[in-house]
């Protein structure tokens, strides 16, 4: 399978560190009946790419002694970006990002059945660490977070407060005067607001 890549290393301050595969092009393979059709507006089935990145990236990171903590696939001014955030005890460095980027990029080339031009970024989480897993909300109880919801809850979609653990199918967030519960299914984006963790980058 042919593909074109332009590699570029960029270090943006202490954190995060990015490793880019720029303008990656995956050549179309012979389609099967089970292959989803690309979305002409998006240039690719976003849900499929995100799911593949989780499924393929998780084991790759685990084998490298790291954890895949978040995946984003979205359109930005420069085009479509597939962004993976990785973490490990002691912090993530450029070599870690580079190694994971190469492996996941090659696996996606093989797995996906469409011609897709995109930018692959692999990064340490930085001070605004994404929260994707239910366990994250328990793990970081006591830390400040920004939560965005799919629809208004109590008249608003954006919440800033302190994580206060979980309850069944919801997370608890302490605001200035009260603690509220936000259902997991309503959360579209969640990030810590001042995370320093173990990053050395």
Structural class: alpha+beta
Mean pLDDT: 79
Number of separate structural domains: 2
Order of helices and strands: EEHEEHEHEEEEE
**Rg of Cα set:** 18 Å
CATH fold-level name of the largest domain: GMP Synthetase, Chain A, domain 3
CATH H-level homologous superfamily name of the largest domain: RimP-like superfamily, N-terminal
Class of the largest domain in CATH? Alpha Beta
Sheet with the most strands, sense and barrel status: 5 strands, mixed
Polypeptide structure, described:
This protein has helices spanning 46-63, 94-111, 134-139; strands at 6-11, 17-26, 67-76, 79-87, 116-123, 144-153, 156-167, 170-174, 179-183, 187-192. With 201 residues, the chain is an alpha+beta fold. Helix 1 crosses helix 2.
